[in-house]
Structure formats: structure tokens, C-alpha cells
């Protein structure tokens, strides 16, 4: 069954890859003919959605992104965080430079206007300025303040420097909690950690039944120029950690038994 699932999903992923290449070529031709760059954001979001379908991801969303642009701050578990979150709302990412070299996901990240940062390159202040400019221009940006991926069992310490872009632009920060589970327990396959390689990790995910992914949008936090980024980072980490505990506690899971009509809920159907 695992090999049948792998074959089916690899075929679907291959067709998706071919369609993505054709789309890329079409957009480049359109850029040349119109002599201006066409906005890739809606196309990237559509491709993110199809990537999630090809991967067989079972995504459950709780809460909602705001109507206005914000700085998003999320915990980070896997490379698949990018297509998952990118499929839910128009967003620009901040990611490590290596992501831009990954097949399909790297191209999609580039088309979505991802800001790539090299580790140890002393680029944080320049990237903070770039994020602030995107926010002031009406776009939403997502950062992973942990700076790396975790096993999804807890949330690593949040770093505050890049969060200062929200104070620079006068916009709120909306924390997001993302979680991967399998059979009601934290999934040990989905995390992309240590020395995992992209292609082997992708194959392993495609062979298995889909994990359940919960994405929890928390209420935005107001930020002012007086906000201390260290305190903001701690506050966001606490909120995201509490969200992870709520998800692992199955707070958002649907009951196995369908609801029936009672005096307290007369609008529900009678039991059969």
C-alpha cells in the first residue's frame, strides 16, 4: 500500500512540477511582452495549494488571518510549513538561503517574494529593513523567530531582532501555531531536522498516510515604537507554545460521535 501511495503521489507531483515549469515559462514570456513584471503572489498561492494537494496534506485551520497586512510569527517544523501557510493567505516569507535551492518549493518561495537570509552572514539588520519596507508597502510577511526547525514537541526560543520590523512599520504581529500529528500524537516523520535531506524526506512523507496539520491563527498583538523586541519575542513564544499545547490536547479535534438533538441544542437532528 505504501508503494502504491508513493507511486500515485509521485505521479501527481510530477504532473504538478511540469505544470509549474510551464507556468514559470508563461510568466517570463508575459514579463517580456508587457515589459513589466507580473505579480506572482496569486499564482504562487495557487501553486502552494496544489502542492499541498499533491502531498496529501490534511490541513485544519483555526482562527483566521486579518483583512489588513501584518507581520506573522510562527513556529517552524518542516519545509512543508511554507506551502501550507502560503496556501492560506497572501504572504511573503523570510527563509534560509538553502530553501531557494530546493526543487519546486524553492521556486514557489521565490515567486512568492521570499526574502532569503544566509546563516551567519550578518544580514539580520538589512533583512529587518527589507521586511519593514514590505510591510509599509501593504504586504504581509512571515518570519520563523526560532531561526531553525524543531521536532514539533515544543517551541524553541524566539529571537527578537527581526520582530522589530513590526515596530518600524507600526503594524501588529499575528502569532501562528502549526502542528503535525499522526494518530492523535505529535508526528515524528514530518519534522525536517538535523541532517535531513529534502528528497529523502519528501519520499518518506509521500509513502505514508497524510499527517494531520493544525494551523492556529492567534489574535494579533499591537506593536508600537516603544515595544521592546525581547519582551515581544517572549510574549509571542508563550502564545505559540500555549497554542501547541491546546492542539496536542485535542482541543480542536472533532468528536468521533456525531452530535444529536437535545433540549440544549434543538436544531440538531434526532438520533437514529
From TrEMBL:
It comes from the Bacteria. Pathway: Lipid metabolism. It comes from Marinobacter salinus. Keywords: Acyltransferase, Lipid biosynthesis, Lipid metabolism, Transferase. Residues 70-181 form the Phospholipid/glycerol acyltransferase domain. One of its GO terms (molecular function) is 1-acylglycerol-3-phosphate O-acyltransferase activity. The keyword Glycoprotein does not apply. Residues 252-272 are annotated as: Disordered. GO terms for biological process: phosphatidic acid biosynthetic process. This is 1-acyl-sn-glycerol-3-phosphate acyltransferase.
Amino acid at each position: 500500500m505504501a508503494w502504491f501511495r508513493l507511486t500515485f503521489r509521485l505521479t501527481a507531483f510530477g504532473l504538478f512540477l511540469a505544470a509549474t515549469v510551464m507556468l514559470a515559462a508563461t510568466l517570463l514570456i508575459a514579463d517580456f511582452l508587457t515589459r513589466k513584471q507580473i505579480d506572482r503572489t496569486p499564482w504562487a498561492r495557487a501553486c502552494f495549494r496544489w502542492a499541498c494537494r499533491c502531498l496529501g496534506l490534511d490541513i485544519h485551520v483555526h482562527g483566521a488571518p486579518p483583512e489588513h497586512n501584518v507581520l506573522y510569527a510562527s513556529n517552524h517544523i518542516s519545509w512543508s510549513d511554507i506551502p501550507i501557510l502560503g496556501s492560506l493567505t497572501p504572504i511573503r516569507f523570510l527563509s534560509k538561503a538553502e530553501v531557494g535551492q530546493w526543487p519546486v518549493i524553492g521556486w514557489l518561495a521565490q515567486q512568492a517574494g521570499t526574502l532569503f537570509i544566509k546563516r551567519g552572514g550578518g544580514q539580520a539588520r538589512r533583512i529587518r529593513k527589507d521586511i519593514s519596507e514590505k510591510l509599509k508597502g501593504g504586504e504581509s510577511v512571515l518570519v520563523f523567530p526560532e531561526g531553525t526547525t524543531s521536532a514539533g514537541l515544543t517551541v524553541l526560543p524566539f529571537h527578537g531582532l527581526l520582530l522589530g520590523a513590526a515596530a518600524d512599520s507600526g503594524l501588529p504581529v499575528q502569532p501562528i501555531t502549526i502542528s503535525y500529528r499522526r494518530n492523535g500524537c505529535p508526528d515524528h516523520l514530518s519534522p525536517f531536522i538535523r541532517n535531513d535531506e529534502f528528497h529523502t524526506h519528501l519520499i518518506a512523507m509521500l509513502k505514508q498516510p497524510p499527517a494531520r496539520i493544525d494551523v492556529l491563527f492567534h489574535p494579533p498583538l499591537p506593536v508600537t515604537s516603544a515595544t521592546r523586541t525581547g519582551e515581544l519575542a517572549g510574549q509571542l513564544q508563550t502564545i505559540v507554545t500555549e497554542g501547541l499545547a491546546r492542539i496536542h490536547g485535542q482541543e480542536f479535534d472533532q468528536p468521533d460521535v456525531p452530535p444529536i438533538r437535545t433540549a440544549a441544542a434543538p436544531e440538531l437532528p434526532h438520533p437514529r
